[in-house]
Amino acid sequence: MADHTPRTPHETAAAAPPAGGPVDALTVEDIRAAHKMLSGVSRATAMEGSRYLSGLVGAPVHLKCENLQRTGSFKIRGAYVRIAGLSAEERAAGVVAASAGNHAQGVALAASLLGVRSTVFMPVGAPLPKVAATREYGAEVRLQGHVVDETLAAAQEHARETGAVFIHPFDHHDIIAGQGTVGLEILEQCPEVRTIVVGVGGGGLVAGIALAVKALRPDVKVVGVQAAGAACYPPSLAAGRPVAIEGLSTMADGIKVGRPGEVTFELVEKLVDEVRTVTENQLSSALLLCLERAKLVVEPAGASPVAALLADPESFEGPVVAVLSGGNVDPLLLQRTLRHGMAAGGRYLSLRLRLTDRPGALATLLGVLSAADANVLDVGHVRTDPRLGLTEVEVELQLETKGPAHCDELRAALREAGYFVTE
Q1: CATH architecture, domain 75-166
Q2: How far apart are CA 305 and CA 77, in angstroms?
Q3: 243-256: string of b/e by CB count within 10 Å (b at 16+)?
Q4: pTM here?
C-alpha cells in the first residue's frame, strides 16, 4: 500500500528551489527522489514494441504507455510530487488548478491521496467524462470561462482570495521532477534506446525526461513534437526566450499551449535536441494507427510522437521510444478523429457528381460503385440549385475504401462509366 504521509525535505523533490529559481538547481537527484516518492502512487507503465513502426523506421520502436497511467496520463507524477512538497500550513489552505482535462485529474487524485482539499476550475463546455472523472477523484469542480485563459484567471483569483496554493500544470521544479521519472523508467526498460520522442505543450514532460536522460545518457537524442497549429516552441527557440503565440488551432488539447514556461523553456533550450511539428492529418492518422495496430486508446496529444515517426520515419535513429503521454480522449472527439484519420489514410472518399434526374439513375451509379467494391456510407441529393439544369440532380457520396490505390480505382471506374466527378 502506498504511504501518503509527508516526507522530509531530504526525501522529496520539494527541496528544489521554487519555479523562478535557477534551472541548474534542479538535477537528476531530484528526479530520483521523486521516483522514490512515487513508488506505489504512479505506475511504472508498460513499454510495448510496435512491429509496424519498427518496419517504417528500420529499427526497434517502443511505445511508453503513459495512456495506461493512473488518471489516464503522466500528470499524476508531477502533481503528486508538487503537492507532497507543500508545508502543513499550505496543505491546510488547499490547492487549486485550472485545466480542461489531464492536469485536472492528476491534481484531483494527488490531492485526495495526500488528504488535501482541491478545487479545479474547468472551462464551460469541457468534455463531460473529464468533468465527471475529476469530481470522482475528489476535487470540487467549478466550470468557469469559455477559453483556458479565462479559466486560468479564475483559478488564480481563487488562489489570491482563499490562500489556496496554485498548482501550475508544467512550470515548476517539482512538477518537472515528477514528470522526469518517465525518463528514468525509459532508461530502465529500454537501456539500448537512442532516441526518445515526446509530445510538447508547455514543456514539463519533455523537460523532465531530457533532464533525467541527458544526465545519465547524454548520447540519447530527445525530440519534442508539437501540433503545427499550436507550436509555441519553434518561434521561442528562434528568439531565445518564451514567445506567446495566438490563434491556436489543434485537436490535440493536451499540447495546446500558447507560451512556454520560463523554467521549462530554459531546460528545453539547453537539453532537448530538436522540436518538430506535425499536422492535424498526421495526428489523426497516428491516433488511428495506435488503435488499429497497437490496440491502444490514445488522445491526439499522446499520439503526437507517433505522428512524427509516421511523417519522417527514416530521420530517427533507433531504437526509438515514443511516449504516449495520455489516453483521455472524449468519445465524440475520438469518433471525429478516427473518421479524419481514415480520410487522411485514403479509407474514406467524398465525391460529388451529377446525374440525370430519372428513375434508375441512382441505382446505376450504385452498381458501378458495387462492382468497384466500395462501401457506400451516405448518399445526399441536391435538387434545388441554380447551378443545376432542369433535369439534373447532384449526388454527394461518402464511401469507405481500402486505401489510396482503391480511391484511384474508384475515380477511374466512375470516369469510364461516363460520370464527371468532383471532390
Answers
A1: 3-Layer(aba) Sandwich (3.40)
A2: 20
A3: bebeebebbbbbbb
A4: 0.82
Q: Where are the alpha helices (DSSP H) in 190-232?
A: 204-216
Cα–Cα dist 114/6, whole Å: 8
- Locate the domains of the chain by residue range: 9-73+174-341, 75-166, 346-422
Q: What is the DSSP pairing of strand 274-278 with strand 118-122? A: unpaired
Compute the distance between CA of residue 91 and CA of residue 111 in angstroms, rounded to an integer: 9
Give backbone dihedrals phi and psi of 77, rounded to 5 degrees, phi first. -60, -60
Q: Residue 400 phi/psi, 5° resolution? A: -95, 130
Residue 299 and residue 67 in contact, taking contact as beta carbons nearer than 8 Å = yes
Cβ pair 249, 230 in contact under 8 A:
yes
Helix residue ranges, H only, 372-416: 404-416
- The CATH class for the domain spanning 9-73+174-341 reads alpha beta
Nearest alpha-carbon partner for 43 in 64, 62, 28, 63: 64
Tens-digit pLDDT profile for residues 257-281:
889 999 999 999 999 999 999 999 8
Query: Half-sphere exposure (CA, 13 Å, Cβ side) for 179?
Result: 32
Q: Is 346 left (phi over 0), alpha (psi -120 to 50) or beta?
A: left
Residue with cell 493536451: 254
pLDDT at position 383 is 63
Alpha helices in 87-172 (DSSP H): 88-93, 102-113, 128-136, 148-162
How many other CB atoms are found less than 10 A from the CB of residue 363? Answer: 8
Dihedral sign from CA coordinates of 39, 41, 42, 45 = positive
Backbone angles phi, psi at 74, to 5 degrees: -70, -10
- The pLDDT tens digits for 59-84 are 999 999 999 999 999 999 999 999 99
Domain 9-73+174-341 and domain 346-422 have a common topology: no
CA pair distance 406, 353, nearest whole angstrom: 18
Side-chain-side CA neighbours of residue 161 (13 Å): 8
What local confidence, expressed as pLDDT, does residue 81 receive?
Answer: 97
Return the bridge partners of 351, or none: 397
Residues with a catalytic annotation lie at 75, 325
CATH-assigned architecture of domain 346-422: 2-Layer Sandwich (3.30)
